[in-house]
Specification:
alpha+beta; five-stranded mixed beta sheet; two-stranded antiparallel ribbon; about 30% helix; about 30% strand
Length: about 120
């Protein structure tokens, strides 16, 4: 997706890491699960991978933005967010949107991290 649309999965700017909007696609398999809970888990696996490649980790996240396509999904994904970021507790915002780029997508997350030992 990155080359096609001309963006980077993550950009490192000194001690800051900005991770682009990341969905629940399994990039290796080229698939996406229809379940929003699995999409949220896969999105965080993707974010974790991007942060690792940038020299950071989930514990370095200071800001998160979530986009969901159905307000009713919030109660189902909140525990997923808690599993991934409950001990980190970044500043966060959730926005309900009319849709995402691919109609199979129900969840997207973007994060900003500050490397602990920059």
């Amino acid at each position: 997706f990155e080359a096609l649309a001309g963006y980077s999965r993550a950009v490192v700017d000194g001690e800051w890491v900005h991770v682009a909007g990341t969905t629940g696609f399994d990039y290796a398999a080229g698939t996406i699960d229809p379940d929003v809970v699995e999409q949220a888990d896969q999105a965080f696996r993707n974010v974790a991978r991007a942060l690792t490649e940038a020299g950071a980790g989930l514990g370095d996240i200071v800001r998160a933005r979530y986009y969901i396509t159905d307000r009713a999904d919030w109660e189902r994904i909140a525990p997923v967010l808690g599993r991934w970021l409950g001990s980190v507790r970044p500043a966060a915002t959730c926005v309900v949107v009319a849709g995402l780029v691919d109609p199979r997508m129900s969840f997207e997350v973007e994060v900003t991290a500050r490397k602990a030992h920059a």
